[in-house]
Amino acid sequence: MINAMSAAHGDSWYVTILLFVITYILIKMGVSKGAKILHMILRLFYVIMIFSGVVLLMTIWNFALLYVIKGILAIVLIYAMEMILVKTKKGTIGAKAPMYWGLFVVVLVVVVLLGLQVIRF
Ligand code: HEM
């Protein structure tokens, strides 16, 4: 069960990021039906990431501070992805685009480096 969660988490994070990028491209290309379907699948991956992450945090990591912080930042990352997609779809992202993209890139890098323990404390 724990191994399955570890595999689910470790194998799903890049699928999540890839789905986000493809959904964004489809929105920009005006392929709204395709974007809608991929956005739904992306939201399913948010659930998989959060569920498997929380299980791993509670079991093998016993709420280690490193992964508590990583988990919180991962939620910020999901927020940034949702804001970018929803606001781009509505056409209301405007001047806030660089802020959300900046947040996305910086938090993504930190979350992955914390997850892989490249950054550790
Ligand atoms: C989109 C959101 C997320 C991304 C991109 C992400 C990314 C990653 C990455 C790259 C790893 C390293 C995996 C590996 O060793 O192969 C990892 C591990 C981990 N993440 Fe996440 N994560 C996300 C969400 C979360 C959430 C919401 C939590 C907890 C609340 C969490 C808790 C953990 C824990 C505890 C580990 C250690 C797993 C292990 O030892 O196998 N993650 N994450």
UniProtKB/TrEMBL annotation:
Domain of life: Bacteria
Location relative to the cell: Cell membrane
Topology within the bilayer: Multi-pass membrane protein
Membrane-spanning ranges: 12-31, 43-61, 67-86, 98-119
Keyword terms: Cell membrane, Membrane, Transmembrane, Transmembrane helix
NCBIfam families attached to this UniProt entry: PRK13673.1-5
Matches recorded under HAMAP family: UPF0344
Family recorded in the similarity comment: Belongs to the UPF0344 family.
Protein name (record): UPF0344 protein ACFFH4_01695
